[in-house]
Design brief:
Elements (H helix, E strand, L loop, with lengths): L4 H4 L24 H4 L7 E5 L15 H10 L4 E3 L10 E3 L7 E3 L4 E5 L14 H9 L11 H5 L9 H4 L5 E5 L2 E5 L7 H4 L28 E7 L3 E6 L17 E5 L4 H10 L7 E3 L13 H4 L2 E5 L3 E6 L9 H10 L2 H7 L6 E3 L21 H10 L6 E7 L3 H14 L4 E7 L5 H5 L8 E6 L10 H5 L18 H11 L4 H16 L4 E12 L4 E2 L17 E2 L5
Helix pairs in contact: 10-12, 11-13, 16-17
Length: about 550
């Protein structure tokens, strides 16, 4: 699911609009200078951000920006590789010796831990701490990714280790072996283990959101200080051993975030690069700044690439008029994606949405089911007997880009005599509102980012009708189509992950035949790094943000 940091209103190194997330080889650099140098050891990397992280507890946070941050202080059994493009989306062992051994038709997975693993307090990272960390996902106070509860077998009344004790379906036959028993076959389980709420912790710790203020680190850094909404500093974790970790280079001595800055202010500071800002990185630049990064000096410090997410218009299929397929198809034809791209700042900041899945997805097929056609739209509405039009309410956040897109949609539907009322919902409650079926209106301007580059993390969460829930609902179209549901089950049962990804590409088309959403755009990231930054590249696994595990300084102390 992984909404982006901007979608949830907390951004750091993901983009200012959508976050999350995974993908393939489409990240690129306008200038090699930002990432060409190898970082030296030492110094402090500084990050300028508009807002704080959602949560420091990996059992609660789950978005592109915070997941990127988590890798500095936490480790899991598996993680994504380090490197631009495909290399950064490849799942690799982390605390585990390998990607696991499946048995019982991939319903059972066995993992063995490396030697010499410790938490920041010096206690061992053993099988019981892995088991406990995963069990936390069932606690009613937790949030985070749905994968532990979706995949691992558990009694219906299990409420996590604090209330219910041990979960029998996660076995620890010895201190270095963990065995997971799943509900059903899931050949891509190593990918699911990259999610933050599979993070191990010492047994019995972390109740009552304790990790949001005092995390227990297993990665190369630990929290030294934090003023929520203002600043955060990480320093080295002396219990971490580089010999056990092939992913994190841990070159800087420290990382320091400054939160609460205006986007335009960040741009000015990054372009100027004065003082300690030469050691800084930030999120994507504002559209108004784009014309100023054309000089050779700034191009050499600029990284750009796809964000890996899809911005889309969700249409509530249970509402009057939108329950009619012809009406939804008419709306899809009526929206000119070029106007949406313009609202997002132009082609350098966004590409037209066509398929549901963004371009980086494995197995994705490029197609456009509803190319812009006002004539087709009017004909479909006439066939539906609605040429005289009607009114719809569009739920949107009061954020610049979102407002611009909302107006573009409003204008696009005027020729169809469809009056769109823009309903602004505060960013802090937006997803709670559109995820509550009783509060959701006709249309919602939203987005989705995959947790890894597979349709399994994109299409089922958005379109499996059996997953519609009264609250925290991700199927904002509220589509419950038997053929789609059955095809989701058939693909999930495939043992060949590559074949499954290809099948998801075809399912994308099958879903769009029902027009539950309008894919609007694939947003891009353009970010400027400090002159002293080295090892920077955009990560397809973390919403197109700079991968924190590899970044460092050219000359510490300069």
């Amino acid at each position: 699911m992984r909404r982006s940091t901007a979608l949830t209103g907390v951004t750091v190194l993901s983009t200012l609009m959508l976050a999350a997330c995974s993908g393939g080889p489409n990240a690129s650099s306008d200038g090699a200078g930002a990432g060409s140098a190898t970082p030296a050891t030492g110094g402090t990397v500084r990050i300028l951000a508009t807002a704080d992280f959602s949560h420091l507890d990996p059992g609660l946070g789950w978005d592109g920006g915070v997941n990127n941050f988590y890798r500095l202080i936490y480790r899991g059994l598996t993680t994504f590789g380090a490197g631009p493009g495909v290399k950064g989306t490849k799942v690799v062992p982390d605390l585990a010796t390998d990607l696991g051994t499946p048995s019982d038709n991939a319903k059972t997975w066995t993992y063995h831990l490396k030697d010499g693993l410790k938490f920041q307090d010096g206690s061992p990272i053993d099988s019981k701490s892995v088991k406990f960390g995963v069990e936390r996902a069932w606690d009613p106070e937790m949030g985070g990714s749905p994968y532990p509860k979706q995949l691992i077998d558990a009694p219906d009344d299990y409420k996590g280790p604090y209330q219910s004790g041990d979960l029998d379906s996660i076995e620890t036959p010895d201190a270095k072996t963990v065995v997971f028993h799943l509900k059903k076959s899931f050949p891509d389980f190593p990918s699911a283990l990259t999610m933050p709420n599979f993070t191990p912790f010492p047994k019995g710790t972390g109740a009552a959101h304790a990790f949001d203020t005092k995390p227990i680190a297993s990665g190369p850094y630990k929290v030294a200080s934090r003023t929520q909404g203002s600043s955060l500093k990480l320093v080295r974790n002396p219990q971490w051993k580089a010999s056990t970790d092939k992913i994190r280079t841990a070159k800087p001595d420290a990382f320091e975030w400054t939160f609460g800055l205006d986007g335009a202010t960040i741009d000015e500071r990054m372009l100027a690069g004065q003082g300690t800002d030469s050691d800084a990185i930030a999120g994507t630049i504002q559209a108004a700044t784009l014309s100023r990064v054309q000089t050779p000096q700034l191009k050499a410090r600029t990284l750009s690439g796809l964000q890996g997410c899809t911005t889309y218009l969700g249409m509530n299929t249970t509402r009057a008029h939108l329950s009619d397929l012809k009406v939804r198809q008419a709306i899809a034809y009526a929206i000119d994606k070029n106007s949406v791209v313009a609202a997002l700042g132009g082609k350098r900041l966004a590409g037209k949405g066509t398929a549901i899945q963004p371009p980086q997805m494995l197995g994705r097929t490029e197609y456009d089911a509803y190319p812009y056609s006002k004539a087709r739209a009017k004909k479909l509405l006439a066939t539906a007997g609605l040429s005289d039009g009607f009114s719809l309410t569009l739920d949107v956040r009061p954020v610049g880009k979102q407002q611009a897109i909302a107006v573009a949609i409003q204008e696009a539907l005027k020729p169809l005599n469809i009056k769109v009322k823009i309903n602004n919902i505060d960013t802090s409650t937006f997803y709670e509102v559109i995820g509550t079926t009783s509060k959701q209106h006709d249309l919602a301007l939203t987005g989705w980012c995959p947790d890894w580059p597979s349709g399994a993390t994109f299409l089922p969460p958005l379109f499996d009708g059996r997953n519609i829930t009264p609250t925290a609902n991700t199927n904002v179209a509220q589509i419950d189509n038997t053929a789609i549901n059955e095809r989701i089950d058939a693909i999930a049962a495939m043992e060949d992950v590559n074949a499954a990804n290809k099948a998801y590409g075809e399912l994308d088309k099958q879903i769009m035949a029902q027009a539950p959403i309008v894919p609007l755009a694939y947003e891009k990231v353009i970010t400027v790094t400090g002159t002293n930054i080295a090892g920077a590249y955009l990560s397809d696994a973390y919403s197109g943000g700079i991968d924190l595990v590899s970044v460092g300084l050219k000359a510490p102390g300069k």
